[in-house]
Amino acid sequence: ITHSKSYNDRIIRTPKFKLDTFSTNFFVDVVPGDGDSIVHLENYADRLLVYKTNSLIVVNVAGENMFIEQQVKGLGIAVACQCIRTDMGVAWCNALRLGSTLNQSIS
Fold first, then answer.
1. pLDDT for 68-101, tens place per residue?
2. Pick from 22, 29, 30, 19: nearest CA to 2
3. Binning pLDDT at 50, 70 and 90, where does residue 50 land?
4. Is 104 strand, coil or helix?
5. Can you tell me the distance from the alpha carbon of 53 to that of 68, in angstroms, rounded to the nearest whole number?
6. % helix / strand / coil in the chain, to the nearest 5?
7. Predicted local distance difference test score (pLDDT) of residue 107
8. Which residues are CB-contacts of 5 (< 8 A; sequence separation ≥ 6)?
9. For residues 77 and 39, is the Cβ–Cβ distance under 8 A?
10. Which of 71, 84, 90, 102 is in the most buried spot, having the most CB atoms within 10 Å?
């Protein structure tokens, strides 16, 4: 993106089978206008975990079209170091709780 506009809810993606090819035409806006900014992205199984400041959005990326599968308020993080990938899944913490993807679910 060559202009200085900031998109706090936007994820730039590549076209199918065209790795490292980025275009302003291929993007996903994740819950735009909610006042939250994306802090960190993490993949887990066929899901993209989108950590915003006040919520966690689970995006299903298994098929041709991406879609929001789940949005959980209160699971957001302030900085990216509050989230870590482990051999057993993804773990994160914020001022209120500790969460993980252990047992194949968001808790």
1. 999 999 999 999 999 999 888 899 999 988 888 8
2. 22
3. very high
4. helix
5. 17
6. 5, 40, 55
7. 56
8. none
9. yes
10. 90
